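Practice problem: predict the structure.
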Amino acid sequence: VQLQASGGGLVQAGGSLRLSCVVSGGTLPNYVMGWFRQAPGKEREFVAAISTSGEMTYYADSVKGRFTISRDNAKNTAYLQMNSLKPEDTAVYYCAADLRLFNAQFASTTATTYEHWGQGTQVTVSS
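Answer:
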């Protein structure tokens, strides 16, 4: 399974970006999808996750109300819509996939749960 993240870039505070994560070599409906980020000098942190059914979503408190995770199983793609961006959102953003054949409502917020990772895409928010 390979994950390809894209959509990062430089944006001013208050702006928006949409990240995409294309999954190949696997069937997206079988995978919980998550987004994590890592800022310079900091540990990787959870951002958002979506269950295989798409009915359950989870967010870090720091992004709740500003970010939206979604999935399009027909396109084998997961998305992270980021609005009202802040300078503290600056980080490399990684998408991750967790094979989950049962419990369609579950999504982990823990990085070690995810078996597959994309290469990361840089998001820089200027003040």
